[in-house]
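Action item from last week, closing it out:
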Amino acid sequence: MTIANIAEKLNINKSTVSRALRGRSGVHPDTRERCIRLAGELGYPIPKDADTHNVALILPAKSVDEVHELAHRSMIAISSEITRIDWQVSFVVVPMLKTSLLDNQKTWPTGLLRANIDSCIVEGMISQESRRMLASHFANHIVMLSRHYLQGGLSGVGIDNYEGGNFAAGKALAAGHPRIGWIGSLGSQDISRERYYGVCNCLAKEGMELSIEIWLDERAPLDTDMIDAVIAPQFSDDPAQRPTVWISSTDWLGAMVMLYFEKRNLFCPEDFSMICFDDTKIAEALVRRELTSVISPITRMAVGAVQMLACGWNGQLDDPAAWLYPFEYREGTTLKQYKR
């Protein structure tokens, strides 16, 4: 079995197959996955590292009990992929306080080295100082697994939030909505800004702009009064001036705003539509309905992170490498066709 056979079966170029199997950049994630899967099925001898490596999965939380729902999904997918590859990997879950590594930053990496940790997968965002610290101890054997764009010159898998915003606005326009409102997150501002600019760009192409934009900080306990203080000054009493659809940078904020409007006898999707990001089930439980969501492909990204780490140990990775995955879309019950 040769690369030419794989290329012929997938109807792609041999050079594309070679780049995919060697972890090079410039290959679409779907194509990379198809190449790796078919190579495994056909018994193609993909070069593998013979050593066993211990990987620290670093999570942005105060404790393991507070790990975000999306990070839990990543952990499951990463564990499954590790059992699939030939070399074994053990995990140490290292909680983080906000975006900085735990308090004693001088002894923290030493503890990992004593545990024979030689690689890291970082879920979410960490500070520049933390990135430098990890790089100094683990060289190039670090992969950033991120819902936002890649960070600080380290290799990683991610998504293009700008395109995600562009996509969400396109869905709103395709449903015929003439007035679009924005709900942004101050707690994850980098992600929200990228999505926000994507939404604005899509509207600008149609000669439109946002009819209202609000920014909320979900790091603080959100209650009706806090949301009202932000929304009320901009919200019109005239239904003909209100947004017909809201695009929320996170589904948690979208759910909170839906609850806020319910207390004012405005319901989704009867009185307005809602498009959210991220697909967290806790937000859906809060509003008791399936949210229309632009979704980060968490499982595919997690699998890609393990594959990237393996390619790095095999010396087959561009430095730094960036594998960007496209968003997925879930048609829930909160977006309806606008009728004049």
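Closing note: The two ends are 60 Å apart (CA to CA).
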